[in-house]
Design goal:
It is a single chain. The longest helix has about 40 residues. The protein is elongated. It is mostly helical and about 70 residues long. It starts with a helix and ends in a 14-residue tail after the last helix. The protein is built from two helices and no strands.
Length: about 70
Amino acid sequence: MTSTEMMFPDRSDFDYDYETLRTTGVILAVVMFFSGILIALSKKMTKCVKSSSNSRSSGTQIPKTEVPLQTV
């Protein structure tokens, strides 16, 4: 045997448990998908609640300004 073979023995006996890897991957994908949806909806709902509560509490609405079109 060479020194390389002594340092790194053959690992052909190692076997992956593909069913557990697949199940874990699917579970993580579902959790990340739903957490992304919840984050997106919470930001949208927060904006709606803040804008509606500000307009109700102050009684006045902020005027919207329009930017004129630029002609070249």
